[in-house]
Amino acid sequence: MADPTPPHGRWLLFLLPFSSVLVLGFGVALVGPTLRGLEGGLEWWQNSLLASAVFLGISGSALAFGRLGERLGFHRVIPLGVAVLAASLALLALGGGGFLPVLLGFLVIGVSFGAIQAAGNPLVPRLFPERPGAALNLLHTAWSIGAFAGPVLAGIYAARGDIQGVFQIGLLLSLGFLGGSMVLVRRFPPAPGDSAPEKRVDLGFPLPLVLLILANFFYAGSEMSINSWLPTYLGAGGAGQAEAGLSLGLFWGLMGLGRVMLGPLLDRFEPRRMLLGHIGLALLLYGASLLLPGMAFLLWPLAGFLYSVMFPGLMVLTSRRFPRRPGAAMGAIFTFGVWGAVVFPALLGGLVARVGAWTVPVVAAGSLGGMGAVILALRERPAT
Question: What's the confidence (pLDDT) of residue 108?
Answer without folding.
Answer: 94
